[in-house]
Design a protein that fits this description.
4-stranded mixed beta sheet, binds uridine-diphosphate-N-acetylglucosamine, 24 strands
Length: about 425
């Protein structure tokens, strides 16, 4: 298994290009199942999770062509779901990535049935899909759980309904929005998630001929249409990747320009970064983040659904809190059990106490490099950030977690002056 080695203590300086958003690209790829006409997506990041979704779609019979094998924002995928030959999403693929469950709504809406493995437990809590299933049932689907699979049927098609989603869920909102696009009549999704990726999906669905209004707000209205067509769509920039590099600059010190990052999607993160002492400037095509001279200050953070502080940036924020002056309280309200980075940061000298859903971080003047590993994507990257500020050498193991969500992480950081390299495992 590859590892990443960081020699800490160098401030960052340079420009980092932001890739297309993984969390937008995954539902967009699933949306290709809604139409027999091709969907061309531009700006699809080159990541392990994208490959997993492509494998799943290929297994169902979707033809996939890589349109432009350029770097980052230039990569395009053309997905044609003309000859869908299987309606089964198998355990082996769903287990690898929860977002696989996003094929359920589209398959059911277009073909009247689908069989999708339950995702099972995962490192950051139980993460059930009950909200997805309850919503689809309200659209008229019959759902059974057998042998670890969701077996869903709607032989006469789905029918629009007023759905009150019991808890804000990005995935459930996306699944239901896609399914409702092909349902008969009007669907209203109340208490919908408001993440920018949901707006991006709605924009693409509308380009395919759907009638979705209100995405980005907490009430989405979808008037079902009989069929959807093809479309071309560019994936929005990855706000979590941008936030991660913004935090890298705040942790390591120095100054970086994040090309393509949108301040509009990063409000809560930028506000907390400023409170911690970073300088932020909006540019026509991105953002500039700087922290020069003084030590960052501790700040309190509570994760919330968008537009609140993203849970996917909580671990990175903790790396900053670890070296800040004073204490920070970091509270995780979206997922249970999302503090796996805490013991690893502690091995580098961080002073962190966890009480239930909150972590008290008492900043220390120096972290020390160490061999570390983590069990999920954002936890792993927080260790890379801590390594940038630490004295000596940090080696992050299990890099496959990083490869799920960060395109060319070490190359992007190295181009901004960090001493980072990938140690490849031979064989
Ligand atoms: C998406 C993101 C993930 C991010 C998360 C929260 C993708 C591919 N992944 O995940 O990176 O961390 O949003 O911003 O976009 N829940 C239920 N029942 C359900 C569904 C969810 O109880 O049926 C709970 C979850 O356990 C969690 C909360 O709702 O506690 C939010 O989860 P959700 O927004 O659904 O996350 P994902 O869509 O899986």
């Amino acid at each position: 298994m590859d590892r990443i080695r960081i020699k800490g203590g160098r401030p960052l300086s340079g420009t980092i290009p932001i890739s297309g958003a993984k969390n937008a690209a995954l539902p967009l790829m699933a949306a290709a199942l809604l139409s027999e006409r091709p969907l061309a997506l531009a700006g699809v990041p080159n990541l392990a999770d994208i490959d997993t979704m492509a494998r799943l779609l290929a297994e169902l019979g979707v033809e996939i062509e890589i349109e432009a094998e350029g770097k980052g924002a230039d990569r395009g995928l053309r997905l044609a779901a003309r000859d869908v030959k299987s309606l089964v999403a198998p355990y082996d693929l769903v287990r690898k990535m929860r977002a696989s469950v996003l094929v359920l709504g589209p398959l059911l809406a277009r073909f009247g049935k689908a069989k999708v493995s339950l995702p099972g437990g995962c490192a950051i809590g139980t993460r059930p899909i009950d909200l997805h299933l309850a919503g689809l049932q309200q659209l008229g689907a019959r759902i059974e759980l057998t042998d670890g699979y969701v077996v869903a049927a709607a032989p006469k098609g789905l029918v629009g309904a007023e759905i009150q989603i019991a808890k804000v869920s990005v995935g459930a909102t996306e699944n239901l929005m896609m399914a409702a696009s092909l349902a008969r009549g009007r669907t209203v999704l109340d208490n919908a998630a408001r993440e920018p990726e949901i707006e991006d999906l709605a924009e693409c669905l509308n380009a395919m001929g759907a009638r979705v209004q209100g995405a980005g707000g907490n009430r989405i209205v979808i008037d079902g249409v009989e069929r959807l067509g093809g479309a071309a769509h560019r994936v929005l920039p990855d706000r979590i990747e941008a936030a991660t590099y913004a935090l890298a600059a705040a942790v390591a010190g120095g100054e970086v320009t994040l090309r393509g990052a949108s301040a509009l999607h990063l409000g809560a993160v930028l506000e907390r970064l400023q409170a911690a002492g970073a300088e932020i400037e909006e540019l026509p095509d991105g953002l500039r983040i700087a922290r020069n001279g003084t030590r960052p200050r501790g700040v309190d953070v509570m994760t919330q659904p968008f537009p609140g502080f993203p849970t996917d940036v909580q671990a990175q924020m903790m790396a900053l809190a670890a070296i800040a002056e004073g204490a920070s309280m970091i509270t995780e309200t979206v997922f249970e059990n999302r503090f796996m980075h805490v013991p690893e940061l502690a091995r580098m000298g961080a002073n962190i106490t966890v009480h239930g859903a909150s972590a008290i971080v008492r900043g220390v003047a120096v972290l020390r490099g160490a061999p570390v590993m983590a069990t999920d994507l954002r936890a792993s990257v927080s260790l890379v950030l801590a390594g940038l500020a630490a004295e000596g050498e940090t080696v992050v193991n299990r890099v496959y977690h990083l490869d799920r969500g960060y395109e060319r992480l070490e190359a992007k950081l190295a181009a901004a002056g960090a001493e980072v390299e990938r140690l490849r495992e031979r064989g």
